[in-house]
Known about the structure:
alpha+beta; four-stranded antiparallel sheet; 11 strands; globular
Amino acid sequence: MPLYKTITVSKNTKVFIWKIEESLETLKADITLTNKNQARLNSMKSELHQKGFLSIRHLLKEVELIDSDLIYDEFGKPHLENNNYISITHSFNFTAIIHSNKKEVGIDIEKQRDKILKIAHKFTPFEEYKTIANHDALIRKLTIVWGAKESLYKIYGKKKLLFLRHIYIADFKFDTLTTTGEIRFNEEIASYEVAFLEFEGFTCVYAS
């Protein structure tokens, strides 16, 4: 089975990335879904979304969990029955989870695309990046910033945060592979460590 990469963030936290290469039938093997999640799977019109959904269940096995261990709150944030912490992401043929038994975590995978240039002003002060002359480097940087903000947004887990006003990502260089982020909301500041990696035209960012 194509477990693409495992990252040990700390003794308490790990990232697991899956590259979807199997048939739908292969992914269904050895997976038992709750009635609710089976109905959810059946309702998906896209086979890629179905594969992503099932591959996440295979990733759960990496931390000795099953489908029924995963529950969602009213905001759509995933939680675990054992009170550990988890975050989930899916982009095209890659899925990933970050799991911790100690603290809240968030993860996001994004395909590096020109599309991000059109929405950059909605999630970051775009002026900060106008000095980047190289087109590909600009897309890479903005994708990392978006993924970092998405990861922090998932940690917060409610719908009130605005990427532009409430989530801040410190500037970084590509070769550092890390940065920091803050959620500034309701006169409170929460700080997080952020790391990123790039592979096959995708960017994965995770925060803890």
